[in-house]
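Propose amino acids for all 119 sites.
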C-alpha cells in the first residue's frame, strides 16, 4: 500500500532546510528566523510561519494544477537542494545566490516530478 502524498510536510521540511543553510550564508549569518524566511519566500508581510507559507504556496496558481504526489515530489526536490548545499558546506555564499540557485538547481528534478506524477 502506498503512503498518501504529504506535500505540506515536505514543504515544511524544505523551509527548515533552507533556514539552516541561509543561517550559514555570508550576509544573513544567524539572522534568519521562520518569520523572516516565510515573508521572504512568500513575498507577503502577512505570512509569518512556514505553515502559512506552505499553505499559500501549495494552493497557488503555480501548484494548483498538479497532483498531490507531484506537489510532494517538487517539495522533496527543494528540500534536497538545501540539504545538499548544507552537507557539502556550500551555504557560506550570498543568500541571493543560494535562493536563486534553488530555482535552477531543482529545475530538472521538478520536470521529472511533473512528468512522472502527472498534472
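Proposal:
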Amino acid at each position: 500500500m502506498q503512503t498518501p502524498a504529504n506535500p505540506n510536510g515536505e514543504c515544511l521540511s524544505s523551509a527548515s532546510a533552507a533556514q539552516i543553510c541561509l543561517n550559514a550564508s555570508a550576509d544573513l549569518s544567524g539572522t534568519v528566523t521562520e518569520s523572516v524566511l516565510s515573508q521572504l519566500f512568500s513575498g507577503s508581510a502577512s505570512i509569518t510561519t512556514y505553515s502559512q507559507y506552505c499553505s499559500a504556496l501549495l494552493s497557488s496558481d503555480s501548484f494548483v494544477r498538479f497532483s498531490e504526489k507531484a506537489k510532494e515530489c517538487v517539495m522533496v526536490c527543494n528540500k534536497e537542494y538545501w540539504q545538499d548545499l548544507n552537507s557539502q558546506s556550500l551555504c557560506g555564499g550570498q543568500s541571493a545566490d543560494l535562493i536563486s540557485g534553488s530555482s535552477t538547481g531543482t529545475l530538472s528534478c521538478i520536470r521529472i516530478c511533473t512528468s512522472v506524477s502527472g498534472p
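The two ends are 22 Å apart (CA to CA). The helical segments are 7-22, 34-42, 50-58, 68-87, 95-105, 107-117.
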